[in-house]
């Protein structure tokens, strides 16, 4: 058996080391890697590993508690659905000067050691504008053949929401309660893309309630005339509040998608 | 000499250079409390050490606990086992505490405990011992360090989230106010902030903002009646660092004294000047102690001791000196004795204690002090504007400020702008005869002591009353959930022979565990040289050749939380073009292995300062093999690693070893790049 076949078989079994090396192949954006990636896709097809994952994008400003939230959602999902395998791809910005990066999202995610159904991978944005790197798209195309859910976490600074829309079945914008008024939500200019909003850190109390109403008003203003206004979920990573609501939303849209047949993206 | 109260005599002339007591009689000052930070191996071994130190003229105790005790694990927990007795004494139950203080009357001792997240528990054990011995609990004197903010920022032995942690601290103040009136429930620490890179102005500002945070919390809780609040303010004490820039450090101490007087008067309305005193203890700086030419550290320690004793107005209440060889290993008893002798010479041989403040009226000192005060006030205002110390911790602001200051310091050492004798100047020296003794000048923990600790723990568990244990833990949990003060339930836990792990686990269930921001994201390093450019060029070449950027996983296995070294490496690696997966502190070897595997890392950098490097490195390398990665991911190790252990580490499979002597970051990164390139040459994707 060729090395590539071994990697593919190991990855399908969710064995972490071959899986991680296969991800590395899909991160390789050199023209020379194209043929090898195609071979890997062919091998995956041959083993019946077709694209199947529900891909959810989580974007939001730094400090909104995205990483912790995404980690908890993934762990909770794996606990709720005994057969579900969940991959998290967390993207951090690269330095424009050195090309290097600090991939710090792992600090806030603690998956049980040895659990094959949970896989976490960091990825640098690789000097790309927006929240995603050149390798994000190919890696998601790989992971969606191996997992039932793929969560992509990006830093939201305006551009990336548009990119992530192309990539994900459902996009969540994660916000933290603000002290101020709706203008602060508007300023971000990222209100139009997400399918749903998550107001995180809702353990903060009064600030969270105020922010909820300000956000509601902002959405109505930014997206007039929408038949069904997008939901706003209130979550807390400390108490676990609202996490199941987000997962229910995800599951509901997965059923809708599966019923309609896989949409072309 | 004529008594000034004699009738019929002319009033005596007061000389400005003399000290006079309340009655006008000439006097001299009493010395500060002499302490040595000590504890290791087991309760019995530490007790023997304390009795020896007290006999040698030490006047107070400073207890060092091991990392499991500090982070709320009993010695038999898997995470605890490699660390038992390494950096301090393991305390599992009240019987260990009895053993630790055997033959030492608690009511007559002044005991300082370096304990934070589990401070309430250790104080409960101390009180429990006093009660069981029939000693007067109200007479207990001493300090529990109990400063959680600096744990989040620098030291790393936190457990619970900020709100719960501040509640524990506040409840100890509330309890001590009436029950242990001479106990300092907490000690606001700026010591560790300086170790983490804080400038003097940052040290002032962060520590004072921290004290404000504690006092505001207590005031808002409303458990202390307003008329008693000044008593709480009066119990706030500080633990400060003294660095090598000793004139500036002395001015920093004067600035502390004046700013604290101001804050307690203006913010809290304290009338009694005694309750506005800045009471502080000092550990002189260990960060500046060098592995190279370690004998030079003796002079550094002396100079730093002067910084906190020369100015009477800003003289410390208690002083701990490190030992000359702390950059090499934990000190031996003789090394600690040498440092104690320094204090005794300073206090008893010199004329230091005969004078009033010798810097009053100095234009230079006053101007420097004013400048520090101004900078500190500005920084305090910034923190207040963010919502206070807690918000500034949670947002990562404080940590990122510290990591930046540290990066700047390291950059200056690398460029030679900051001179460190024996490190980046005058590096050629004769071999030190101090290091050629039988033990190589370093201390090693006797592994057999760990077995004794575990046996003692098993014996207590077998012989206690399980019903009383269950009831005590249930009462603790109930208090934690309902907001009742947890001190008495903790004391009952102590008396019931609950273990450290059981106490902490109960509160973990209620409060959860917390991971603060790491502060390394978005940091820059100011080291630019041809050698850095060369490493970057090699990184780019690596990308071209392999299709991915060199990727390093940096992690601290075990319970040791001193993360500065790991953070500097993380920032430096990014600066040199690496993708850095920084997973923070207190990780199990299994977690680090999983990170490296999932990330398909090119190299793992372990940072270990606790002395457990052999065990932990072995576990990581074996874990990689068990996960099917074989030796495909090379492991490098950095930390306080004695020369004697280098060979054993290499035999285990460590590809590079870095110690405090490796301060040149371009060189460190270049050697890491060597390892990465060699591995890429050896294996496929």
UniProtKB/TrEMBL annotation, chain A:
Signal peptide: none annotated. Pfam families: MeaB. This is Protein kinase. The keyword Nucleotide-binding applies. Keywords: Chaperone, GTP-binding, Hydrolase, Nucleotide-binding. InterPro entries: GTPase/Isobutyryl-CoA_mutase, P-loop_NTPase. Coiled coil: none annotated. It comes from the Bacteria. The keyword Hydrolase applies.
TrEMBL record, chain B:
Residues 549-679 form the B12-binding domain. Transmembrane segments: none annotated. Residues 1-22 are annotated as: Disordered. Keywords: Cobalamin, Cobalt, Isomerase, Metal-binding. It comes from the Bacteria. Its cofactor is adenosylcob(III)alamin. The keyword Ribosomal protein does not apply. It holds the Pfam family MM_CoA_mutase. Belongs to the methylmalonyl-CoA mutase family. This is Protein meaA.
